[in-house]
Amino acid sequence: MKEEVVVIEGTSKAAMHGGAINKGYSIMDLIFRVVAIIGTLGSAISMGTTNETLPFFTQFIRFKAQYDDLPTFTFFVVANSVVCAYLVLSIPVSIVHIINSRARISRLILIFFDAAMMALLTAGASAAAAIVYLAHKGNARANWFAICQQFNSFCERTSGSLIGSFASMVVFILLILLSASALARR
Amino acid sequence: MKEEVVVIEGTSKAAMHGGAINKGYSIMDLIFRVVAIIGTLGSAISMGTTNETLPFFTQFIRFKAQYDDLPTFTFFVVANSVVCAYLVLSIPVSIVHIINSRARISRLILIFFDAAMMALLTAGASAAAAIVYLAHKGNARANWFAICQQFNSFCERTSGSLIGSFASMVVFILLILLSASALARR
C-alpha cells in the first residue's frame, strides 16, 4: 500500500517537472513571437516607406525610385505584413499554452502554420535579396545595370530592411523546434 | 485481480495502436523524402544543364546564355543539391523511425534540420523565381530589359526547373507536420 503511494507521488512529481519545463518553453515561444513581430513589422515599414527622388531632373522626367517600382519589393512588404498579422493572431494561442502546458492539437496546428509562414517569409526575403543584389551589382551578361550607382539611399534602405526579415526567419526555425520539444516532452 | 489484467491489456493495446499509427507516419515520412529527393534533384539537374546559344552571331560576339551567367541560378543549383544530399542522408534515420516508432531525440533533430533545409530550399527557389520573373517581364523603371525575348528556350527551361523546388518545399511542410504528429502521439 505504501509503495503504491510513493510511485504515484513520483509520477506526479515527474509530470509537474515536465509541466514546468513545458511552461518555460511556452514563455520562450511567446518571447520569440514578439521578437519576430518586431522584425517583420520593422521590415515591412522600412521597405514600404522607401522612396528617393534624385536632386536633378530634366524637363520631362523626374528621377524617382519607390519600393513599388519593383514588384518583388511589393511582395516583400505583403509577405512581411501577412506574417506579422499571423504572429499577432498566434499570441493568444501561445498564452493558452503557457496556462495549459499539455495542449496537443493546438501545438500541432501552430507548427503547421509556423512552417507555412516561415516559407512565405523566406520566399519574400530571398526574392527581395536577389533583386537587391542585382541592383547593387547589375549583370553584364543580361545587360542589367546596377541602379544603386544612382539611387544610393534607396538601395541602402532596401538592403537594410532585409535584416529584420532574415532574423525573423531564424526565429521561426527556433519556434518550430520549441513547439516540437514541448510536444515530445508532454 | 482480473480488473487489473484487463486494464493492462487495454493500455498495451492502445500503445500498440499508437505504435501502428506512428509506423504509418514513418512510412509516409520515407515516401515524402523520396518524392522531395526526386524534386530537388530534378530541379538541380534541369537548371544546371541549361544553356542556349542563339543561331546568329556577329564577328566578335556569340550570343550564349548559361545558368551560371546569373549568380542567383548558381545559388539555386547549390541550394537544391545541398537539400537533396541532406534528404539522402536523412533516409536511414527515417528507416530507423519505421522500426523504432518511439524515437524522440532523433525526431526532434530531424524537425530542426527539416526546418533549416526548408528555409534554404525556399530561399533558392524564390530568389530564382524573382530573377525568372525579371527575365520574362523586365522592369521599365530600372531599365532592365526582358531577356526572354531573345533567349526563349533558356527562359522556359529555367522557369520549369522551379517547379520541382516549389513542390519539394510543400513536401517539407508536410514532413515537419508528420514528425510533429508522431511526437505528439508518442
TrEMBL record, chains A, B:
Similarity-based family:
Belongs to the Casparian strip membrane proteins (CASP) family.
What is this protein for, i.e. what is its function?
Regulates membrane-cell wall junctions and localized cell wall deposition. Required for establishment of the Casparian strip membrane domain (CSD) and the subsequent formation of Casparian strips, a cell wall modification of the root endodermis that determines an apoplastic barrier between the intraorganismal apoplasm and the extraorganismal apoplasm and prevents lateral diffusion.
**What does the record give as the organism's lineage?**
Eukaryota, Viridiplantae, Streptophyta, Embryophyta, Tracheophyta
Q: What is this protein called?
A: CASP-like protein
Q: Which residues form a coiled coil?
A: none
Name its species: Carex littledalei
User: Quick check: keyword Cell wall biogenesis/degradation in the entry?
Assistant: yes
Transmembrane regions listed in the UniProt entry? 30-50, 70-96, 108-135, 162-184
Q: Does the keyword Cell wall biogenesis/degradation apply?
A: yes
Under InterPro entries, the record lists: CASP/CASPL (IPR006459), CASP_dom (IPR006702), CASPL (IPR044173)
Where in the cell? Cell membrane
**UniProt keyword terms in alphabetical order:** Cell membrane, Cell wall biogenesis/degradation, Membrane, Transmembrane, Transmembrane helix
